[in-house]
Amino acid sequence: xxxxxxxxxxxxxARKDLxxxxxxxxxxxxxxxxxxxxxxxAAEKALKAWLCVIGVEYPRIHDLEALCIMLEERKQDIPSxxxxxxxxxxxxxxFRYTAFGDLRDDVDRQQxxxxxxxxxxxxxxxxxxxxxxx
Length: 134
Hints:
Layout: H1 3-21, H2 32-53, H3 64-73, H4 80-83, H5 94-97, H6 109-125
């Protein structure tokens, strides 16, 4: 599979995580760990798709900061809204598999959704001819 096709499929998977976030905005209904996991997954997949677009093979990691560093090393400009998503890395493993009881939920879920949406749209614009229709 070519890099651009892989990027397109990875973005489709990211869109599914983003779609799930839309119904997870109420902290009384969906715990932060679950919301954060899907937000992290959407961001991770978008960053990996970005790497595919520029022809970079990415490692099997969940660390959003490390993925951003890989992009920056290749002279990619990472907007601050995307960089501030790096805290979501904790939801990939630690918060997903550990019981934290009452984890303080002070995350602005709507802002996270906006930031992740912008990241996905940014990468999709790199693929105008094959990006899925909205």
